[in-house]
Write a structure and sequence with these properties.
single chain, 5% strand, 2 domains, 27 helices, globular, Rossmann fold, mainly alpha
Amino acid sequence: MPRTIAATETSQTDTFDQIRPANAPRRYFAPLDGIRAIAILAVLLFHISPSALRGGFTGVDVFFVLSGFLITSIILNDLREGSFSIREFYLRRIQRLSPNVVVTVLGVLLLWIIFLPQSTARQVGQHGLWTLFNLSNIYVWKNLGGYLGQAAEWAPLTHTWSLGVEEQFYLFYPGSLLLLVRFQPGRVQSWLTVATILGFGLCLYGTYTHPVATFYYLPTRVWELLLGAALAAHRMPLRTRVAQLRRTLGRNAQEAIGLTGLGLIIVGYILIPDVSSFPGWVAIAPTTGTALVLFSLADEHTRLAQGLSCSFLVGTGKLSYSLYLWHWPLITLGKTLASLYGKPLIYGSVAGAIVGILLALGVFVFVEKPLRKRSPGRTWRLAVIATGFSIVAFGAVAVSSRRRVADPDHRFDTPTFFGDLYTAGKALPDPATRLGFYDAYVEPRPVRPDDSWRTGGVVHLFGGGHPKVVVFGSSHALMYAKLIDDICRKMGISVAFLAAEYGAPAFFTHTLNTNFFSPIEAQLFDEARRNWLREWHPEALFVVDRWIESAGTPRGFDKDLRSFLTEVSPMVGRVLLVAQVPVLGGADLVNLREFVTWRMRAVKDLPQFDPDQEEPLRKQSVALAEAATKDFPNLHVLRADLPFYKEDGSVRYLSGRTFFYVDNNHLTSAGAEVVRGLFQCAIADAHRSALP
């Protein structure tokens, strides 16, 4: 799941400026690379198999604190020596960071053009351009959504969001620090500490009210960098502080502090379960732990410092920036290819990680190290970096501007999807921006508020009075909306749609999504739906969702289902829970029609799609729902999934020229028509049973 991390962007020769005498040459300090290694190894393992280290993504917090510490140490020490230059600072950043990023974006573009359908490369081109200009965090938030969301997880440049945060920090921080040193020379650490506390408060507030934006944006992440900065800005040299601490607490105090810090980092890796409530309070573990480790490393002779200086960790730490850039795109490509060809995803993850490590090593040796030298020839090296940046930027623009053609030979009819007409939440993006929908005809939504659920949703009073049929759910409910609307119109029954895109839940679970950025708004949505049911007492309530994805596990689904039924069963005549249609394995990150025509050019026949790896979980959800009918007699399970299986168990995704699926999990309007009889009988039976 992405899961992403930013390797520290400071030079491998950056050191503790405060642990060397003034005017002494800057020397290499090996334990810092050991810290880098601990962070990058955790995230590498997490990205290969998220279940192996659930909180491995918190390595980004380790890097943020370390980066803030090192940058502040460098600037303050250079100021003391009278050698600091803003121009030189940014030239060093350019030499250190840009070459590998430029090659990474170029490599990802080429890999996606060569191995995948063209529309997937188009999105990589768009994201690559934002990455080059250090705005990836904004792109990810606007276009890919939550860190655990499917779009972000499978995008090859998602991980560059954290580089965007650090680069934006570097843009304003040196000037701000210079002003502090000039006008408040005795209070630099105090101001940085105050800024850290205020930033952490903003982070806590944002985690509760706007968690997705809080995860990606600099204002709610800056406190982590400032924590390291405040530690580095202490006017008393670190060695003096260590000596005082030992005199006060004893000989082993420094060892205890360092090991406590390392323990906090590891606790974060093991016990932080996911990013749904992250950063928030739990971010204190990895950030405080890193600060304690940094403080303890002022004594180079502690066991922790010596352990972090072992050759394996030091070598890994030196490679950490390149590893960070290359491992995630190759893991993503490996998983994508494994999915497309029906192989286990873990095979693709492991193979991708191995190739990514090899590429990271090659680029580090032949690109990154040569171009970051400051020896004679620097002007030439900067010119090479600028030329490469320009070429790749223009290439990204060209790839992202390519016209997409899903079916150049016109083998199939244009798919249609009318869910946008019925959403009670926010308007959907332009179909041209949605990979699975760009070739489909999507009827645009009429102008209505983004929170029309507050006023009953989309209501059609075909029979007068209150709605007798109500629809709850996400986009999986919307794909049946036109069918249900048409049936109700012909039967003269009023209907209301309280469904919304972007994962709006069918159950009352206060789920955060693009419609609801805060728990408060999600709770208001659920309360509004309750109130409408109490007022209307409909004859039939359709409940439709992508069940396992929304609930997480079969046990979670069963718990949510029974809690929901306990509440709504007394308010409605019948609860019609619709079984989820099978999901096409290997088609989740491509345009379905484009992929089919792409494969047909190679194999000259229609590709077969088996259900994806969550098929057993979907079957369990159906079994649990059918079991619940014993305790809730007005619950009926509609097996809308059955018509979409072939005899051999593969998915029936088209018939002749007509596609039943618009992407790997949503039905077209033609696909919904396949189950018209099932829905019509369910509505008619509910209506008859409600008659006196």
